[in-house]
């Protein structure tokens, strides 16, 4: 075990042959197993478990990186399995962020400047390129590839070996290479407590976006019309779903929305 003197380690479970470099903070109740390498500038919050041979806080695989100070932040109660790699960010004081309660399976890769929300599942060999954004309750299937700067909306499931090069709205199911939206994540919505009416409105949103051939501007108009109808009829549950989708679509996007 080798811990740099500038780091604060409150955990009482640190395995053999662990390296924790400069400027790290490891909270109490973090479990770090044997042969983990944490290079520097990494904050890990309570309850996270890190399995053998995980590598965290190494420099980004980015030619524009000039050895500026940057960070990795990992929240509470995450499980990070063997041989996962998590790189720190490009850009002065920027962060690669992983929030809470995520299950990150063996051999996953989370690149520089990525954001992973809470309650996600990242399956083995899935890879997120730089600046990817994975929102809460997303599931990435095994060997799924997420292109740099792509955003994946809440409660979306991405199939194994899918190649995702554009943004995917919330509640959708994506599969294929190149990836296509093939329906809604109905089972995922059920598991997370959404009711019959909410699942039905998600289906209607899917049909509006993916079966009509509309442009993105027309999609936004049609979703706003649907929103007004839901407000008029006091459909609070359905409105929650629509607002999540609208908020996502209205975000600025460098990759554009996956429409086909």
Can you put this structure into words, describing what you see?
- The protein is α/β, with parallel strands linked by helices and 260 residues long.
- It folds into two domains: 2-184, 3 Solenoid (UDP N-Acetylglucosamine Acyltransferase, domain 1); 190-250.
- Helix content is 20%, strand content 26%.
- It has helices at residues 186-191, 196-210, 216-232, 236-250; strands at 2-3, 8-9, 13-14, 19-20, 25-26, 31-32, 37-38, 42-44, 49-50, 55-58, 71-74, 79-80, 85-87, 95-98, 103-104, 109-110, 115-116, 121-122, 127-128, 133-134, 139-140, 145-146, 151-152, 157-158, 163-164, 172-175, 180-184.
- The strands form three sheets. A ten-stranded mixed β-sheet has the order 3-6-9-12-15-18-21-24-26-27.
- Strand 26 (172-175) and strand 27 (180-184) form a beta hairpin.
- Helix 2 (196-210) packs parallel to helix 4 and helix 3 packs antiparallel against helix 4 (236-250).
- The model has no long low-confidence stretch (mean pLDDT 97).
Overview features:
single chain, 260 residues, alpha/beta, UDP N-Acetylglucosamine Acyltransferase, domain 1, 9-stranded parallel β-sheet, 27 strands, elongated
CATH architecture of the largest domain: 3 Solenoid
Strand proportion: 25-35%
CATH level 3 topology of the largest domain: UDP N-Acetylglucosamine Acyltransferase, domain 1
Describe the sheet with the most strands.
Answer: 10 strands, mixed
Q: What's the overall geometry?
A: elongated
Helical content class: 10-25%
Regions with pLDDT < 50 over 5+ consecutive residues? none
Secondary structure: number of strands: 27
User: Which secondary-structure class do the elements indicate?
Assistant: alpha/beta
The chain-level mean pLDDT equals 97
Side-by-side strand order of the widest sheet: 3-6-9-12-15-18-21-24-26-27
CATH H-level homologous superfamily name of the largest domain: Hexapeptide repeat proteins
What is the domain tally?
A: 2
Helix run count: 4
Please report the first level of CATH classification, the CATH class of the largest domain.
Mainly Beta
